From TrEMBL:
Cofactor(s) for this UniProt protein: Fe(2+)
Protein name stated in the entry: 2-oxoadipate dioxygenase/decarboxylase
Top-level class of the enzyme under EC nomenclature: oxidoreductase
Similarity remark: Belongs to the 2-oxoadipate dioxygenase/decarboxylase family.
EC number: 1.13.11.93
Keyword vocabulary terms for this entry: Dioxygenase, Iron, Oxidoreductase
Entries under Pfam families matching the protein: HGLS
Domain of life: Bacteria
Stretches that traverse the bilayer: none
InterPro entries the record matches: HGLS
Naturally occurring in which organism (per UniProt): Alkalimonas mucilaginosa
Length: 267
């Protein structure tokens, strides 16, 4: 496991860029000339609740560089459980890790996922690069479609594996923008499509967090039986409000996060 938090996030970022080419254009649209004001609020990762690769196995990599558990979230309709983690150095990004509760899914889904996970070598899970190692399995497009019919989350995991599902621009840190509405308008003017599930802006000042996101990039992926163009990763934008003078809220809002998950839906 990594011992350097900055090195870990740099690797996660480079891996994310490989399947999210639009991310650099987001920086060009929103950042100041030096782009020093593009600060990462948080990243999110997905997994399945199997002992071999469950949420805690991913969390261990962040705990190894100083992260601490700070909150838990339930998404009953999507059959997900999640936790978020924070670093004592508040300048470091927050981390949101979720897992699909397989026992609530169909036997077909459980079987497909089980066959994928069985292909992961045990030692891969504790390797330095596990959080940005992608897939450790071969999957055909028909299996992807079967998963997609039941759970977009499961299909995304089957296609993309272990990597940051999204990075998040901290709107609070931007020099050229005051509000999330202004950020969204700049993105739309720049040709980006936004996730409109639950409205372009999820949350409010009242819940201390506003969030929006692009729709995931469409990337051609080589499945075992040929190529298909599918959603990859997306970029989120978060504006946080103060819980006390000078202290920003650091948690997440389940109702908003529920809609953010849909940024990787097919379109």
């Amino acid at each position: 496991m990594h011992s350097n938090v900055n090195e870990l996030f740099e690797n996660l970022w480079q891996n994310y860029l490989e399947v999210t080419p639009s991310a650099k254009r987001v920086h060009q649209l929103l950042g100041s000339s030096q782009q020093a004001d593009i600060i990462n609020d948080h990243i999110a990762l997905r997994t399945f609740n199997l002992e071999k690769i469950g949420l805690e196995k991913l969390a261990a990599h962040f705990k190894a560089v100083g992260y601490e558990e700070c909150g838990e979230y339930h998404f009953e309709a999507k059959k997900l459980y999640a936790k978020h983690f924070e670093h004592p150095d508040r300048n470091q990004p927050k981390v949101f890790i979720s897992e699909l509760l397989l026992e609530q899914c169909s036997e077909q889904l459980q079987q497909i996922v089980g066959e994928l996970v069985a292909q992961i070598p045990d030692e891969a899970v504790t390797a330095d690069n596990f959080l940005y190692s992608g897939t450790h399995w071969s999957v055909d497009h028909a299996s992807y479609e079967k998963l997609l019919a039941e759970s977009e989350y499961a299909a995304w995991m089957a296609a993309w594996g272990f990597r940051a599902n999204h990075f998040t621009v901290s709107v609070n840190a931007l020099e050229n923008f005051e509000t999330l509405e202004q950020v969204n308008q700049a993105l739309k003017d720049g040709g980006f499509l936004l996730n409109t599930s639950g409205g372009e802006i999820k949350g409010s000042k009242e819940v201390l967090l506003e969030q929006s996101s692009t729709l995931a990039d469409l990337i051609t992926l080589q499945f075992s039986d040929g190529p298909a163009t599918i959603p990859s990763c997306f970029y989120e934008f978060a504006r946080r409000y103060e819980v006390a003078p000078g202290i920003l809220y650091t948690g997440f809002v389940a109702a908003s996060a529920d809609k953010i998950f849909e940024s990787t839906n097919a379109r």
